[in-house]
Amino acid sequence: MSKRIEVEDLNVYYSDFLAVEGVSIDIQPRTVTAFIGPSGCGKSTFLRTLNRMHEVIPGGHVKGRVLVDGDDLYGPGVDPVLVRRHVGMVFQRPNPFPTMSIRENVLAGARLNNKRLSKGDADALVEKSLQGANLWNEVKDRLDKPGGGLSGGQQQRLCIARAIAVSPDVLLMDEPCSALDPISTFAIEELISELKNDYTIVIVTHNMQQASRVSDKTAFFNIAGTGKPGKLIEYNDTATIFTAPTVQATEDYVSGRFG
Ligand SMILES: Nc1ncnc2c1ncn2[C@@H]1O[C@H](COP(=O)(O)OP(=O)(O)OP(=O)(O)O)[C@@H](O)[C@H]1O
Ligand SMILES: [Mg+2]
After folding, report:
1. CA of 221 to the centre of ligand 1 (A)
2. Strand, coil or helix: what is 35?
3. Ligand 1 atom at minimum distance from 15 CA
């Protein structure tokens, strides 16, 4: 279930390159946190450290600590595969397995965890996950058709269903609506508002309206120049970030003066 994420003085590297420096942030359960900031400031890089996906990239490593309900994700003996089961991720471009059926797409992660899923349990999990992702009614009569046959917005909700089918504690979403039309975007935003009852959600977005609509807290990241590390500049209630930020750069960014 929903968990707290505490990050303590995290540095994120690609080999020698320090991409993100000194991030400390405390993210509460059952909240939506938006990461905003100009391109290249390290939002995706930092997000990927929250489920150890960063280390999949050759040379990718971190210094500092990430605690999920007090447990250090980077502690000795912690299995990154297990971490990713508890901290799910949804990417910018919907990435279902295109030839795999809708049903099997939903079950893809769950099958890795439990090889002996019975037909009845699988059916129940498919329905529950698709209901949770607000997609069930649209696909219930074609569960055996390929995932690639869905619209972009449906595919993104299918990926959300796949992510929640493994019952994660945290959902990370990197610009989940950037490839979607306004109606699909609205559907995803509605869904995020519902999912926060069960999950800790972190979403990266370039859309300021979206950040103010869906998030409780907003973290503004910035970069001092090319080759410099990205930093967390300001983190506060979303309303405060958008109406009364403390730092001038935050104000300039949210009012559209740069980025
Ligand atoms: N796989 C990689 N190898 C090396 N450097 C990388 C890699 N991915 C990102 N970087 C670098 O890390 C820095 C942060 O990039 P990142 O993609 O995290 O930014 P971002 O804030 O998500 O940008 P955008 O808004 O454009 O998605 C950039 O300087 C980028 O070039
Ligand atoms: Mg990014």
Report:
1. 13
2. strand
3. 4
